[in-house]
Amino acid sequence: MNFSSDTSAPAHPLVLEAMAAANTGLEASYGNDTVTRRLRQRLGDVFGTADFDYWMTASGTASNALALSCFCPPTGAVLCHAGAHIAVDERGAPEFFSGGGKLQLLRGQDGKIGSEQLDEALAGINHDFVHETPAHVLSLTNLTENGTAYSIAQVADYAKRAHAKGLIVHMDGARLGNALVATSATPAEMTWKAGVDVLTFGLTKTGAIGCEIILLFGKAREKKRELEARAKRAGHMPPKMRFIAAQAEAMLEDNLWMELATQANEAARRLAEGLQRKGVKLAFAPEGNEVFALLSEDQVARLHAAGAVFYPWMGGSQRLVCSWSTRVEEVDALLKALKA
Predict the structure, then answer these.
(1) Run of H or E including 138
(2) What is the dihedral of CA 274, 277, 280, 284, to 10 degrees?
(3) What fold characterizes domain 256-339?
(4) Angle 79-268-105 (CA atoms, 0-180°, nearest 5)?
(5) CA-angle at 313, arms to 307 and 319, nearest 5°
(6) Which residue ranges does UniProt annotate as crossing the membrane (predicted)?
(7) What is the CA radius of gyration of the chain?
(8) Is the pTM of this model over 0.85?
(9) Between 188 and which of 48, 51, 122, 204 could a Cys-Cys bridge form, CB atoms 3.0 to 4.6 Å apart?
(10) Which residues pair with 137 in a beta bridge?
(11) DSSP alpha helices (H): ranges in 136-186?
């Protein structure tokens, strides 16, 4: 009964098969191999555009920090939610990679930036006032760290406001698949069509081993060479990138990543409904693969004693995360242990 994180889940067998298939013969290094190059067509098909460039890392933190560093100067700031992964779970990586850029934290319900808070922050940008740090980037997380999802309309609205003030729009898509399942959106609709300039597209939590893709859309492609240079300097230019690309190929083929995201979301839905039937209140409406339950100390102790693994979360809730490999039997066992 391990509900600790979707990063605790095993890799899908097809990912391992793809990596084994890529493990033949000699290939060019640093992303110049045939597997990485042919991934462009697959990504273009998934996102419905050829107007993009991409880079791969094995870490979501590295992808976020590298992407943001290309658009936020050392004297600038990134607008993000106070509970965003880049703010609370990356040990200052965005600030470090940008050489001193600041994160300007905004509040909002359910892990999403509030509309009024965004307007206030945008209105306060003044590049001519030397004593403050002007924002250069708006970063949205979808799925949010509270398991909720921005809709297409919300992303488009916020992106439009940010662009009007000259900001670049970044999306942390570590759980993009889960957000797309929750909103019935296509990858294109939720990203570049809604105004997202740079996406960190996560596949690790969905079922890969370590596969994160930075996508630069449209005018943001001008930063491709800088992104490569920053990746090299930061130690995130894998010499055998074909093995990361092979993971992406396997996940994207036949829409496997969306199938796995659907499985994770469905497991979380079953868990959430079961908890609610037992009178447990939830801190947030579960829209993806995470459930935040308001459990008593006795309930937490009882579940831990039964072997359930999960972690406390901000605001007093307990976070339970489902993955592609979460079995119905595990969910039901946790619910049974709670009742006992």
Answers:
(1) strand 135-141
(2) 70
(3) Aspartate Aminotransferase, domain 1 (3.90.1150)
(4) 10
(5) 45
(6) none
(7) 20
(8) yes
(9) 48
(10) 78, 168
(11) 152-164, 176-183
DSSP labels, 22-86? H-SS---STT-SHHHHHHHHHHHHHHT-S-EEEEEES-HHHHHHHHHHTTS-TT-EEEEETT-HH
Domain ranges of the chain: 11-255, 256-339
Short-list 198, 191, 232, 223, CA closest to 213: 198
Question: φ and ψ at 232, to 5 degrees?
Answer: -65, -50
The answer to whether the beta carbons of residues 230 and 247 sit under 8 Å apart is no
At the topology level, CATH places domain 11-255 in Aspartate Aminotransferase; domain 2 (3.40.640)
**How far, rounded to the nearest angstrom, does the alpha carbon of residue 153 sit from its chain's CA centroid?**
19
Token code pair at residue 128: 């001519």
Q: Are strands 135-141 and 168-173 parallel, antiparallel or unpaired?
A: parallel
- Separation CA 172–CA 87 (nearest Å): 12
Hey, what are 154's tokens? Answer: 């919300």
* Residue with the two structure tokens 């004297």: 75
Structure confidence by residue, pLDDT tens digits, 156-214:
999 999 999 999 999 999 999 999 999 999 999 999 999 999 999 999 999 999 999 99
Do residues 216 and 227 make contact, with C-beta atoms less than 8 angstroms apart? yes
Measured on CA atoms in the order 242, 40, 237, 14, is the torsion positive or negative? negative
**Calpha distance 109→93 (Å, rounded):** 25
- Pairing state between β 290-294 and 102-106: unpaired
Tell whether the model's pLDDT for residue 259 goes beyond 80. yes
* Count of beta carbons in the 10 Å neighbourhood of residue 21: 12
